């Protein structure tokens, strides 16, 4: 007798495929209209590269893209160091307080992180700009790195460290020669995750950005607020391409992070 | 082992504990805990003449006088504008969560029951769109719902053939909810799949052998066992949906605004920070309650059944 549990029914496949369509059609529309030779995103007129040409002449967008890259790189580096320390510390010493601090910014809606940081920066008379954005991004990226490091640690065979210690390694040597190399994929994956989250962030950046520190998502927001133009489609398509490349690299390095 | 050696080891242990936990601990204290506390304090202060905050104390000949107030909290209850907006936002988030359950179930179950070698690919296809930029995903729906768009034209062809008024999809609560579902759907699919994948299929085989039909198999076995996955997904969908402001901002028009829009407005446009803080704290409180409830529901006691 055929087992119901062993394969998806026809109904499941049909319903599942519809959900896949729901996930992809909107993005396909964005990509398609970025090559459309019409100012309206309404009907297909003809193929053109002109929106991409326009994009590369748009100083604001290029400036914003450069800002995004700088912010994401620095935030990811800082978050990787701090997040790795946090992950090790929480795993090793079971610190509830640190765990709460690390997970807090992940659990809270972005808007709350954004407005409370805005409040603090202004009250401390700090100028809003690249620095304030980076400080804000690091605070929500630490948690993701810590989680990646923790999940790697919990999958690690602790007897390897014990063996190293039995063979005469000092705790520091055991850490440097055994734990750290085993941890490396987790750290790299966490760092790339932090980079992706930082370059993608809109809400927290929105509240902590100042004059001249606009990032790509902020630039898209202000363009879209004014009018829907195919230039936005072009920049969106490029952004998708960049993320696709990042994700492919990430899945090569550490497939387990994508699944968490 | 000599006591000297143990003491040295303890000292090294304590030192490493401090070296590891202090940098991230201090950082998050300064850039997460302190701002949150400052916001709590700001909710009891007066707003400044040109926005921002007024001084919370002033010095006169008698000494220092505190200048704090409960006014901002009272304002929350003075009119029913804010409470009804809060209820509306909760309703939007709830409807979004329910639609996400309905849409996530077939796809998660389909992946869980596919052959092992296809599962990773099918899962990756779920995650990919979720990695495209948040604003790009909203923008996609601005195109689809635009008045010149094909969807609006098609719908209006139908409505006009019934002699009804033309409808507009853009700037409506429908647009907001569709986009909320779109943005958060993977957060429901992933935990649900993680749960479904662990189900012991022998339970279903046994039920089938005992004469249960497909619906009974689903309703009596798969569904109850999948509840922890649904709870986990519900938190991941509900909390971010509740605080969102970009989607109502771009797709909601005046009817579709949510609590996040008013918070943003208080901080950015009308610059009434004390009241903005009150609204933010209400949102924080709701979030904390939900996280705690979810932690209770998702506790190991409820999750161990039906695993291989």
UniProtKB/TrEMBL annotation, chain A:
It is a multi-pass membrane protein. The keyword Transmembrane applies. It is found in: Cell membrane. The chain crosses the membrane at residues 12-35, 61-88, 100-124, 130-149, 232-250. It comes from the Bacteria. Keywords: Cell membrane, Membrane, Transmembrane, Transmembrane helix, Transport. The keyword Transmembrane helix applies. Residues 65-250 form the ABC transmembrane type-1 domain. Belongs to the binding-protein-dependent transport system permease family. CysTW subfamily. This is ABC transporter permease. It comes from Zhongshania aquimaris.
TrEMBL record, chain B:
Residues 86-294 form the ABC transmembrane type-1 domain. InterPro entries: MetI-like. Pfam families: BPD_transp_1. The chain crosses the membrane at residues 26-46, 90-109, 121-147, 167-196, 217-239, 275-295. Keywords: Cell membrane, Membrane, Transmembrane, Transmembrane helix, Transport. It is a multi-pass membrane protein. The keyword Nucleotide-binding does not apply. It is found in: Cell membrane. Coiled coil: none annotated. The keyword Lipoprotein does not apply. CDD domains: TM_PBP2 (cd06261). Belongs to the binding-protein-dependent transport system permease family. CysTW subfamily. This is ABC transporter permease.
């Amino acid at each position: 007798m055929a087992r119901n549990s062993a394969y998806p029914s026809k109904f499941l496949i049909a319903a599942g495929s519809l959900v896949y369509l729901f996930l992809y059609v909107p993005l396909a529309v964005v990509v398609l209209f970025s090559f459309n030779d019409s100012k309206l995103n309404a009907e297909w007129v003809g193929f053109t590269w002109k929106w991409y040409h326009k994009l590369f002449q748009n100083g604001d967008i290029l400036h914003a893209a450069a800002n995004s890259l700088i912010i994401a790189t620095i935030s990811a580096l800082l978050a990787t160091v701090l997040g790795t320390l946090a992950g090790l510390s929480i795993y090793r010493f079971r610190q509830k307080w640190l765990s709460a601090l690390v997970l807090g910014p992940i659990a809270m809606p972005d808007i709350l992180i954004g407005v409370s940081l805005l409040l603090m920066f202004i009250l401390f008379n700090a100028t809003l700009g690249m620095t304030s954005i980076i400080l804000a991004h690091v605070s929500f990226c630490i948690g993701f790195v810590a989680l990646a490091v923790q999940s790697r640690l919990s999958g690690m065979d602790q007897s390897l460290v014990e063996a190293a210690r039995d063979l005469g390694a000092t705790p520091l040597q055991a850490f440097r020669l055994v734990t750290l190399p085993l941890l490396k994929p987790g750290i790299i994956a966490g760092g790339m995750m932090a980079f992706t989250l930082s370059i993608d962030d809109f809400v927290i950046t929105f509240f902590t950005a100042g004059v001249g520190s606009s990032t790509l998502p902020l630039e898209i927001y202000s363009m879209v607020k004014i009018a829907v133009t195919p230039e936005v489609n072009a920049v969106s398509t490029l952004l998708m391409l960049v993320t696709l490349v990042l994700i492919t690299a990430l899945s090569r390095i550490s497939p387990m992070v994508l699944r968490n | 082992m000599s006591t000297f050696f143990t003491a040295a080891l303890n000292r090294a242990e304590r030192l490493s504990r401090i070296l590891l936990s202090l940098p991230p601990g201090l950082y998050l204290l300064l850039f997460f805990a302190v701002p949150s506390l400052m916001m709590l304090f700001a909710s009891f202060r007066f707003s400044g003449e040109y926005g921002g905050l007024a001084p919370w104390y002033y010095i006169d000949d008698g000494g220092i006088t505190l200048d704090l107030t409960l006014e901002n909290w009272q304002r929350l209850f003075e009119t029913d504008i804010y409470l009804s907006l809060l209820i509306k936002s909760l309703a939007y988030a709830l409807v979004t969560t329910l639609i996400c359950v309905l849409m996530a179930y077939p796809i998660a179950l389909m992946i869980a029951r596919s052959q092992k070698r296809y599962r990773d690919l099918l899962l990756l296809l779920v995650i990919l769109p979720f990695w495209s930029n948040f604003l790009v995903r909203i923008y996609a729906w601005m195109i689809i719902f635009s008045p010149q768009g094909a969807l609006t034209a098609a719908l209006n062809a139908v409505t006009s053939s019934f002699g009804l008024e033309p409808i507009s999809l853009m700037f409506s609560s429908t647009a907001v909810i569709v986009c909320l579902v779109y943005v958060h759907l993977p957060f429901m699919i992933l935990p649900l799949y993680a749960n479904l994948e662990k189900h012991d299929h022998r339970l279903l085989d046994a039920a089938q052998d005992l004469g249960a039909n497909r619906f009974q198999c689903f309703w009596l076995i798969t569904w109850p066992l999948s509840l922890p996955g649904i709870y986990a997904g519900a938190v991941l969908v509900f909390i971010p949906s509740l605080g969102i402001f970009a989607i109502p901002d771009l797709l909601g028009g005046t009817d579709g605004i949510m609590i996040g829009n008013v918070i943003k407005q208080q901080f950015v446009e009308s610059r009434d920070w004390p009241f903005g803080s009150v609204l933010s704290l209400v949102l924080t409180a709701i979030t904390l309650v939900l996280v705690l409830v979810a932690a209770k529901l998702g506790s190991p006691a409820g999750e161990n059944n039906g695993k291989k």
